[in-house]
Amino acid sequence: MHRLDRMVIEVSDAYSRRAAEYIEHFGSMSAVHPSDRQLVSTWASGIEGSVIDAGCGPGQWTNFLAELGLPARGTDLVSEFIERARGTYPEVPFTIGSFNTLDAVDGSVGGVLSWYSLIHHEPDTIRVPLLEFNRALRSDGTLLIGFFEGPVVEKFAHAVAPAYRWSVDDLSGQLIAAGFDVVESHVRKASGQRSQAAIVARCKDAR
User: Fold this and answer.
1) Which of 28, 62, 66, 68 is the most buried (most CB within 10 A)?
2) What superfamily would CATH give domain 3-203?
């Protein structure tokens, strides 16, 4: 089995085992920081076309995008998350699947949200989903990534499965190599908490 495939299975299994706990603590918009809500709202306001919430978890962000008027759908490998999302937001489409291979025609999607869903990818595999996002996006499509920030790329002991911090510069470099232009970046630091960051990127090549 390819190392990336093995990692995906191990991470999805780890989330399955702790799905109820994760949903309790992070499975609603009430757990979202106000600045994150504002950032995603601002990003969404500039999107034309459909949106994929890649690694949607229990679906709260997907529903948030749908409530903003976007044709949004969520995908996640954790069946417990998708079951919860379908039950909680029955009017929003959710599918079980990997964001390394999105169910989307080339150049058909207006936006991709990857909110902390890439944190478990190793530095030498993270370009796989980034290239897939680029493939699915329209020439004017944008990607919003949320991630844990640090001065260097660094592995750390996440509560569910091993994860990575990225500097904005390092992740921006991966995005550029995958065919994106970096539009803007944001970093939020709070005492006693992990530093958070987000990057908005746009496909650089016309389809």
Assistant:
1) 62
2) Vaccinia Virus protein VP39 (3.40.50.150)
